[in-house]
Amino acid sequence: MCGIVGYIGKRHALPIILDGLKRLEYRGYDSSGVAILTEAGLTIKRRKGKIKDLVELVRHETIDGTMGLGHTRWATHGKPSDENAHPHRAGDVVVVHNGIIENYTELRAFLKDRGHHFKSETDTEMIAHLIEDHIKAGEPFEGAVLSAVRLLKGSFALGIMHVKTPDRLITVREASPIVLGFGNDENLFASDMPAILPYTDRMMFMKDGTMAVITPDAVRLMDFSGRGLPTEPGRYDISATMAEKGGYKHFMQKEIFEQPHAITDTMRDRILFDTKDITLGDVLLEEKGLGSVKRIHFVACGTSYHAGLAGKYIVEEITGIPVDVDVASEFRYRTPLVNKGTLTIAISQSGETADTIAAIRLAQRQQSSTLGICNVIDSTVARESDQVLYTHAGPEISVASTKAFTSQLIAIYLLAIHIGRITGRVSRQQASAYIDTLVSLPSLLDAILKQEDRIVAIAKEYSRYSDFLYLGRGISYPVALEGALKLKEISYIHAEGYPAGEIKHGPIALVGPDMPVVFIAVKGRVYDKIRSNIEQVKARDGKIISFTTADGREVPELSDAVFFLPAIDELFTPVLSVVPLQMLAYHIAVLNGTDVDQPKNLAKSVTVE
Ligand code: AGP
Predict the structure, then answer these.
(1) Is the dihedral of CA 210, 282, 411, 301 positive or negative?
(2) CA 368 to CA 294: how far, in whole Å?
(3) Is the pLDDT of residue 343 over 60?
C-alpha cells in the first residue's frame, strides 16, 4: 500500500505535499518523492528511506511551484531504491500510483515495441509511458489519460501531471482509495483524509472507475468513458488534530487510550435506552431476509480475523446461529460452502485489504448476502458489501490495530443482540442485561488504562526475552492470539497464541525459565481448567504472567506477575482483557527501541495479495 498526494492552488505546493506525505507515512515508508511544476519547469526529488530523508533532501532548495504530486511507497514491483521511488516520468508526463497493474508485463512489452525505454522496474513508470504514447499520437492530456487507464487491469489510484498542461492535475481511482479535498482557490487529492484535513473539511471519496480533472477553482469528475459525473463533497468533522498524536509518543499509544471513546462512539445512537433495544440504523437486516439466515461466516485478516474468531463465541452464544470463521486469503481460494442462506461478514479496519475484498466478491458470486464491518467511510469493503456497519473508532494511523479491534467487537455484540431480538432468541430482559454490560465497558476500560504503570513494570521485567507463549480458553483464546500478534508485529519478538487446553499436545515442551507464558485467566466456565494449566506451567519452571479477573488467590500465588481485570460477564471480557496486552506489547517495543508506529516490512493496509 502506498500514499499519494496532489495539490494545485494559490500556495506553494511543496510544503503542503510534504506535510501530506508525513500524515500518510503509515501507508508505506520505504521510499518517497515529490514532483513540482515551477516557472522554471519540472522539479522531481525522490529517495529511498522515510519522509524525513526526503525533507532533508529538499531542505535547502527553492522549489516554489503551486502544483505538484507526492508519493510514499511500500514496494510491490521493484525493491525500495531511489530509481524505483515515485514520481515516475515519461517525457512530459509525471505519475504517482498506489496499487498493482496486473497486465503490466504485456503493456510494457507493447510500449517497448513502440520505442519506449524504461529506467525502473515499476508498473508505475509503464503507466507514464502509456499516457505519453497517447499524447504523442495526438490525444489531448485528458483524453490520453482516459485511453490509457481503459487499458489497465488491476488496482490503481493515480496522480498525473503533464508539463505542457500546467493548469490542471488529474487523479484516477480504480480499486485503490482516493479522497478529493475542495478548498478555496485550491484543491487537493490524497489516499486518505489525514493529508487533506488541515486544508479543508469538504471532502469526497472517489468511486472506482472515475477520473477527476482538478484546477485551483474547479473539480470535474467523469467515468472512464468521459461521461460527466456530479461532484458531491461532504463535510467531515474529523479535525486535523485527531489525526495527530495528541501529545502521545506514538499513534499506537494514543489509539490505545482512545478506546473508551472509540467504543462509546461505536455504540452511540445504536442503543435505545428507553426500550433497552438495539437499532443499527441503515443496516436493515430484517428487511434483508435475516430470518432466512442459517449460518454466519466471518472473513478477515490479521487482527480483524481475531475479532471474527471472538465473534464466533459472541454470535453463537447470543443468537444460536452457527458461525464459521475464515482467514480471507484461505476463504478466497477454496470452495467455501456459503450460499443464500449465509450471511458473510467481512471485518476490515481499512476496508481496503485485498484478500478481504476478494472474499466478499466470492461470497456474493455464491449468492451469500454480505455485511461489512469497517472503520473507513466509503472504503471498498464498505461500498461493495450489501450492507455496512461502521465502527466509529476515528482514523487509526498506527500499523498495529488496537481501537479498531475493540470497536469491531462492540459492533459484533450490537449485531448479535439485534439479530437475537429479531429472531426472538433474546428476550427484552436478556437484551437489557447485555446492554448494561456494554454500557459499563468504557469506564472499566478507563480503569485499566489508569494502571499503565503496572504494565510498564511488567514490560521492564520481560522485555529482553526472545520467545513468548500466550494462552487462553474459550473467548479468551482469540485474545491470546491477538496479544501474541501485537507483541510480534511491533517488537519483533517471537510470540505464539494457543488454546490453553492444547499445551499438553506440544507447546509444553517449550516451557521453561526462558519463555514467559502469558495467561488470560478470566473468571468463567473454564476458570478451573486454566488455573490447572497455570499449575502445569509452574511445575516446569515457566515464567507466568497472568491477566485475571478472579478475586481468588490461586492465580496470583502461582504467577510471577499478575494484572487484575474488572470482573464482568465472561462473554464481554475480550474488550477489556486485550487492552493490557496491547499496552504490554507497546511498552516492550518502546523499551526495545523498535519503530512502533511503522514496524519493518509492514503496512497499515495490505491492499495487495
Ligand atoms: C493488525 O495489528 C495488523 N496491522 C494487521 O494484522 C491488520 O489487522 C490486517 O492487515 C487487517 O487489516 P484490515 O482490518 O484493515 O483489513
Answers:
(1) negative
(2) 11
(3) yes
Pocket lining: 399 vs ligand 1, CB cutoff 6 Å = yes
Instruction: Assess whether 2 carries a catalytic annotation.
Output: yes
Pocket test for ligand 1, best of 74, 306, 350 (most atoms within 8 A of CB): 350
Specify the pLDDT at position 231.
93
Q: In the CATH scheme, what is the homologous superfamily, with its name and number, of domain 251-447?
A: Glucose-6-phosphate isomerase like protein; domain 1 (3.40.50.10490)
Tell me which of 330 and 74 has the higher pLDDT: 330
Whether 401 shows a pLDDT value over 60: the answer reads yes
Catalytic-residue membership of 604: yes
**The three grid cell numbers given for residue 90, joined into one nine-digit string:** 515519461
**Given a cut of 60, is residue 76 above it in pLDDT?**
no
Whether 3-232 shares its CATH topology with 251-447 is answered no
Domain 3-232 has CATH 3.40.50.800: no
pLDDT tens for 527-570 read 999 999 999 999 999 999 999 987 778 899 999 999 999 999 99
β-strand pairing of 271-272 with 277-278: antiparallel
Q: What is residue 337's DSSP assignment?
A: -
* pTM across the whole model: 0.71
Please state the three-class secondary structure of 23-72 as a single string: HCHHHCCCEEEEEEEECCEEEEEEEECCHHHHHHHHCCCCCCCCEEEEEE
Residues 216 and 392: their CA atoms lie apart, in Å, by 33
Q: Which atom of ligand 1 is nearest to the CA of 350?
A: 15
Please report the pLDDT score of residue 601 as a whole number: 84
Average pLDDT, rounded, for the chain: 92
Query: What is residue 529's DSSP assignment?
Result: H
pLDDT in tens, 87-118: 999 999 999 998 888 888 899 999 999 999 99
Across 319-340, b (16+ Cβ under 10 Å) vs e yields bebebbbbbbbebbeeebebee
With a 6 Å cutoff on the Cβ, whether 1 touches ligand 1 is no
**What's the Cα-to-Cα distance from 471 to each of 303, 499, 585, rounded to whole Å?**
17, 6, 15
Q: Is 299 in the pocket of ligand 1 (CB under 6 A)?
A: no
> What does the pLDDT read at residue 232?
86
> What's the gap in Å between 264 CA and the centre of ligand 1?
22
Instruction: Using the predicted structure, report yes or no on whether residue 149 has a pLDDT greater than 90.
Output: yes
C-alpha of residue 376 to centroid of ligand 1, in Å: 13
CA 486 to ligand 1: nearest atom: 2
pLDDT band at 265 (very low <50, low <70, confident <90, very high): confident
Question: From edge to edge, which strands make up the β-sheet containing 369-374?
Answer: 323-327, 295-300, 342-348, 369-374, 387-390
Taking the centre of ligand 1 as the mean of its atom positions, its distance from the CA of residue 303, in whole angstroms, is: 5
Q: Is the CB of 380 under 6 A from ligand 1?
A: no
pLDDT digits (tens, 9 = 90+) for 288-316: 667 678 999 999 999 999 999 999 999 99
Per-residue pLDDT at 82:
75
* C-beta separation of 45 from 39 below 8 A: no
Domain boundaries, given as residue ranges, for the chain:
3-232, 251-447, 452-591
Atom of ligand 1 nearest to the CA of 302: 6
| CATH of 452-591 among 3.60.20.10, 3.40.190.80, 3.30.230.10, 3.40.50.10490 | 3.40.50.10490
Q: Is 476 in the pocket of ligand 1 (CB under 6 A)?
A: no
Going from the C-alpha of 18 to that of each of 45, 58, 59, 344, 396, the distances in angstroms are 11, 10, 11, 40, 20
User: Does the Cβ of 349 fall within 6 Å of ligand 1?
Assistant: yes
